[in-house]
Amino acid sequence: MKLNQNFNNLDENYLFSKVGQAVLRYRMQNPTAKIINLGIGDVTLPLSACVVEAGKKALDEMQTPEGFRGYGPYEGYEFLRREVSEYYRNHYKIDIDRDEIFIGSGAKEDMGGILNLFATDNKVLIPNPVYPAYLDVNMMDGRTVEFICGTEDNNFLPMPDYRITSEIIYLCSPNNPTGQVYDREMLSAWVNYAIANNAIILFDAAYKSYITESDKPRSIFEIEGARSCAIEFCSFSKTAGFTGVRCSYTIIPNELMMLKKLWKRHLATKTNGVSYITQKMAQAIYLDKGIEEVDRQIKYYLENARLLREAFDKIGMKYYGGVNAPYIWLKCGEDSWKFFDDMLYDINVVVTPGIGFGTFGEGFVRIATFGKREDIIEAAKRIQKKFGKK
Ligand code: PLP
């Protein structure tokens, strides 16, 4: 037996485990400290009533001989794929056929799985800074990775460089961690670059429901030409509080028929689908009061973001994001782990060091705005006290 040596090239711990361990150490030394965690991007609001009702109803069905269901379709139940397709038509004015939609148990799993379709000698282009899982999964397979760098000069929205060729391109908009979002023109430039390079764009739209500016695209398929070069990944995690429930969907357009065929083959071998109960809960988001209830949750987190932005504005700290995303990218201007320690030790507020999202994240920290309102208000007060003029 030989181990996959590529794991030696990874950091020993995933970023959020490192943050968690540091917080745990502090908590053990200071058991009474009132720590506010603005670090890990996990939701805090409970599931909405319509989602819970749908789950209970599905369970009741499973208790009857007629309603019981065993293995479901690998690609997901028709009822959920139909709702997603209609949502795209009604809200984004895009036609996505229901058989272009594949239900999964999380965007992280889907984005890891999709690499199974691509040869390991494809060159990969990954934004820096970005959600760390993209780099890690490619390193596990031993692919060569180049970075497209987000800096203050490009507002953390890096654009294609035709001197670099690549076959697999990751884009994340709204971006985790910077909270920045591409406009149509920028995404169009990426689509043109992908077509010119005969490359595929893996478009992570996990935070698309947070986009408030109406001119910003929610889907890559709003861009002309994208159907011939892009796959879109979406998640119910941050949209509807499904981080613990687990449900997502991937869109592979018919123009990419071979990839669609391989993805079906991949699913047939590697999963037995997502549970009926989970998919019924996800469907509820699109029915009756679902859209309204979920929208209320998103607005709650965006209001948290506004309160924190207001606090940073008052004390003159520079930041990005927080308008179209549940993340604020705060400029700390120093070693981001040192800033992390200062925040934890001085005011008991946890942030995520920017360096954990890539080398170009140094000098910044990510603030997640998924906390409870009272914690956000308290954190804003502590930050203003620490950094405001004395
Ligand atoms: N993509 C991005 C950019 C994320 O930030 C996350 C989770 O934080 C995911 C994907 C994973 O989502 P899921 O919970 O559906 O696996």
Question: How would you briefly describe this protein structure?
Answer:
With 390 residues, the protein is α/β, with parallel strands linked by helices. The protein has helices spanning 15-29, 49-62, 78-92, 107-113, 133-141, 184-196, 237-240, 257-270, 276-284, 290-315, 336-347, 373-387, and strands at residues 36-37, 101-104, 123-128, 144-149, 168-172, 200-204, 230-235, 248-251, 319-321, 327-331, 349-350, 352-353, 364-368. It folds into 2 domains: 5-45 and 291-387, Aspartate Aminotransferase, domain 1 (Alpha-Beta Complex); 49-284, Type I PLP-dependent aspartate aminotransferase-like (Major domain) (Aspartate Aminotransferase, domain 2, 3-Layer(aba) Sandwich).
Keywords:
binds pyridoxal-5'-phosphate; alpha/beta; Aspartate Aminotransferase, domain 2; 390 residues; 2 domains; 14% strand; four-stranded antiparallel beta sheet; Aspartate Aminotransferase, domain 1; seven-stranded mixed beta sheet
Oligomer: single chain
The residue-averaged pLDDT reads 96
Can you count the beta strands? 13
In the sheet with the most strands, the strands line up as 2-8-7-6-5-3-4
Strand content: 5-15%
Rounded Rg: 21 Å
The CATH H-level homologous superfamily of the largest domain: Type I PLP-dependent aspartate aminotransferase-like (Major domain)
- Cofactors and ligands present? pyridoxal-5'-phosphate
Globally, the shape reads globular
